[in-house]
Write a structure and sequence with these properties.
alpha/beta, Rossmann fold, 5-stranded parallel β-sheet, globular, binds BIS(adenosine)-5'-pentaphosphate, binds magnesium ion
Length: 212
């Protein structure tokens, strides 16, 4: 099954993607993670993407679409995949339709008031990518899962988060209507409840869709 995860910055796409990916054995393809890996490795794509990401703007469509188009030719997507953070505007959605067949869009709706604190307090493991909130770490600086060092994403600061949320409203939110019209959207509400609660709701619906 080919699935898109849609939602505002901080809605919990990455958190849910890890769980969905584990349960259904689908590769998790996050354009944000791909760009961050490129930045870390100092590639040309990384150099280009960095200025956009640091400003909370979208990386140009040609670059992003080419990356995803190539990624969807890998062998591991034969039984399906999970796209996290792509598409992010109507152009990308229309491009994706030219080279992929999407079965379901998991849309996480969330109250924007929750997001600034979630993102500015987020700490991410350098090794395995697990996310934490600083309020629950009790001063710890390493990952509970793998012991890796925790860091703060450079775009998780108030000014950049504001810009990311504006970009989401203007460019990404219209995709809800786009996929509603196609009849493949599955709507969920992200809350302050633990991520496992939302995951149980998502898994129930996906299990049914997959006939499990
Ligand atoms: P990207 O990496 O995709 O970032 P984003 O969309 O801004 O979303 P985040 O990763 O910040 O949040 P998330 O929804 O994954 O939430 P998470 O699970 O971590 O993109 C970064 C940048 O790359 C973009 O700004 C853009 O520049 C560029 N880019 C990427 N894709 C692009 C594209 N297609 N086109 C152009 N440019 C692109 O959760 C957030 C926090 O909340 C965590 O701390 C987590 O622990 C916590 N949390 C999660 N769920 C819960 C819960 N239920 N209760 C309490 N806390 C929770
Ligand atoms: Mg993410």
């Amino acid at each position: 099954m080919n699935i898109i995860l849609l939602g505002a910055p901080g809605a919990g796409k990455g958190t849910q993607a890890t769980k969905i990916s584990e349960r259904y054995g689908l590769p998790h393809i996050s354009t944000g993670d791909i760009f961050r890996a490129n930045i870390k490795n100092g590639t040309e794509i990384g150099k280009l993407a960095k200025s956009y990401i640091d400003a909370g703007k979208l990386v140009p469509d040609e670059v992003t679409c080419a990356i995803v188009k190539d990624r969807l030719t890998w062998d591991d997507v034969a039984k399906g995949y999970l796209l996290d953070g792509f598409p992010r505007n109507l152009f990308q959605a229309e491009e994706l339709d030219k080279f992929a067949k999407i079965d379901a869009v998991v849309n996480i709706n969330i109250d924007f008031a929750l997001l600034m604190d979630r993102l500015c307090g987020r700490r991410v493991c350098k090794e395995c990518g697990e996310s934490y909130h600083v309020s629950t770490l009790g001063g710890k600086t390493t990952c509970e899962r793998c012991g890796g060092e925790l860091y703060q994403r450079k775009d998780d600061n108030p000014e950049t988060v504001k810009s990311r949320l504006e970009v989401y409203e203007a460019q990404t939110a219209p995709l809800i209507e786009y996929y509603t019209k196609k009849g493949i959207i599955l709507n969920f509400t992200g809350t302050e409840a633990p991520a496992e609660v939302l995951f149980a709701e998502i898994a129930k619906v996906l299990d049914e869709k997959m006939g499990l």
